[in-house]
Write a structure and sequence with these properties.
The structure holds two protein chains of two kinds.
Chain A: H1 3-8, E1 16-22, H2 46-59, E2 63-68, H3 77-86, E3 90-95, H4 102-109, E4 114-119, H5 125-132, H6 136-150, E5 156-161, H7 169-178, E6 182-187, H8 194-201, H9 205-218, E7 250-253, E8 258-260, E9 271-274, H10 280-286, H11 288-293, H12 308-311, H13 316-320, H14 337-343, H15 364-367
Chain B: E1 8-13, E2 16-21, E3 26-30, H1 33-41, H2 48-51, H3 60-72
Antiparallel strand pairs in B: 1-2, 2-3
Classes of the chains: A alpha/beta, B alpha+beta.
Chain lengths: 397, 77
């Protein structure tokens, strides 16, 4: 049995676990995958979070990717970071930079076990702030400046690639170099509020090729979280694992303790259980949803395509939230099959979100109010490739 | 004489084991339970020859290569 087949069948514990600590956020990014904004009153308490960390330590989950919302606005954020690293659970956290002042940067520089990702979706203020909000570019750059000044090494600049910023890839790289940081590019998903802006923000086919060529040219010097595997159908496969990790090597714990198959799949259809009622290990190892995601998959209508081996049909979440069947092409299939499939999708068959914490002025639910009922006929099939974080990052096989 | 780097954690899995180095953030896979046994026997005072004593001679080159990779990547020191 090949290693990838072991991954496909699921591991005793996730390799890569995303944990969103809060839905509260100072920003209201138009494409937020978790529709964050307002704090959920059911948020896990400090003690409950520590109990989760204890469990992760027992399961030997080596590190967690902490996000939100904006995780640093939790008053116990640093307490939880310290608790995790003291219990052999390393922390990588994503932030818009709001709390990364000189003191926080000094604190981070003194820790061996914490990595930081600053989110930035434009290499210029105008492109970034149009998506992330006024002042967010300056805030992110101030945070990067504090980290660099404190001697924090190798911060990550995390960019969601959009139609508006694909032309700025070289500028992003220069920006990262300026701060001694590493550039991390990830794929826009139609998840959360991303569904509302997908049509305007997702890269065009021409831009996808531009992005693919850029990624090939820059190799492993740029991180991607293995999220662009659907581009592999342009030619040679990009570095990474030929497998969707959802529910198999990847999952999400949300702020109220719900466990989802992947960070881009916050929807009842991908909800495996809750850490409060069952404990994380029980959900990971015994949920019926995850068991089904770990079963072999046929490839469906993509199976006869000559590129299926490289793209594996694309991203489960991207298909689900655009109303496409999970065993068919990705909406951004570079062979054009996604566009053909989307032509047959009516608005009524696009799933509505099942959770929305948007600030009331930016309510995605309100924006989507005109949409019809959700048909729950889509089956949950084994997804195709790992999409959020590559468990092969830095791998020697 | 090799041993696991003190910052490396080992997580057994059905296929073998995952190794994670908290210093370099590097993840490695041991694709054979017997290789995990060998790694556990390397305690800094056991020679590679002794650690491999239960491994059939025909398979020892592959095991030695795997150990060399682990040493090169800082998992073993």
């Amino acid at each position: 049995m090949k290693l990838v087949e072991h991954f496909a069948a699921g591991l005793d514990a996730p390799i890569c676990l995303t944990w969103e600590l809060t839905y509260a956020c100072n920003l209201a990014c138009v494409h937020c995958l978790s529709s964050s904004g307002r704090r959920d009153p059911r948020e896990l308490s400090t003690q409950e979070c520590k109990a989760v960390i204890d469990e992760l330590q027992r399961m030997q989950v080596f590190y967690v990717n902490i996000g939100g919302g904006e995780p640093t606005v939790r008053s116990d954020f640093w307490e939880l970071v310290d608790y995790a690293t003291a219990h052999q659970v390393g922390v990588k956290f994503s932030t818009n930079g709001v709390r990364i002042d000189a003191a926080a940067a000094a604190r981070l520089a003194a820790s061996d076990y914490v990595d930081v990702q600053i989110s930035l979706d434009g290499a210029t203020a105008s492109v970034n702030d149009a998506v992330r909000g006024a002042g967010s570019y300056d805030m992110a750059l101030a945070a990067l400046g504090h980290l660099a000044a404190a001697g924090f090494r190798d911060a990550k600049i995390s960019v969601v690639c959009t139609r508006q910023n694909i032309s700025q890839l070289d500028e992003f790289k220069a920006l990262a170099d300026r701060f001694g940081a590493t550039l991390r590019l990830t794929r826009l998903r139609p998840s959360g509020r991303g569904a509302d802006v997908w049509d305007e923000l997702h890269p065009t086919m021409t831009q996808q090729k531009e992005l693919y060529d850029w990624l090939v040219a820059h190799g492993e010097g740029v991180l991607t979280g293995d999220s662009f595997f659907h581009l592999s159908a342009f030619g040679s496969a990009l570095p990474g694992l030929n497998l969707c990790g959802a529910g198999r090597v990847v999952c999400l714990i949300d702020p109220v303790g719900d466990v989802y198959a992947c960070p881009f799949a916050i929807h009842d259809a991908f909800l495996a259980g809750n850490v409060r009622t069952a404990g994380f290990q029980e959900v990971w190892q015994h949920s019926s949803l995850f068991a089904s995601l770990r079963e072999p998959q046929s490839g469906g209508t993509c199976a006869s395509c000559q590129h299926y081996d490289s793209c594996q049909g694309g991203c489960m979440a991207a298909k689900f939230f655009t109303g496409l069947p999970l065993d068919g092409p990705d909406p951004e299939c570079v062979q054009g099959y996604g566009e053909l499939a989307l032509a047959g999708v009516s608005n009524a068959s696009v799933p509505a979100p099942t959770g929305d914490h948007s600030h009331s002025v930016a309510s995605a639910a309100g924006m989507r109010a005109g949409r019809g009922p959700v048909p729950l006929t889509l089956s949950v099939r084994r997804p195709d490739k790992i999409c959020e974080e590559s468990p092969l990052a830095g791998l020697t096989v | 004489m090799l041993t696991l780097h003190p910052k490396v954690s080992v997580r057994p899995e059905p296929f073998g084991a995952l190794l994670y180095h908290f210093g370099t953030r590097r993840l490695s896979f041991l694709k054979d339970r017997r290789l995990l046994d060998v790694v556990h026997r390397l305690d800094g005072s056991t020679s590679i020859e002794d650690a491999l004593s239960d491994v059939p001679a025909a398979e020892q080159p592959a095991f030695r290569a795997a150990l060399a990779t682990l040493e090169k990547t800082g998992m073993l020191v």
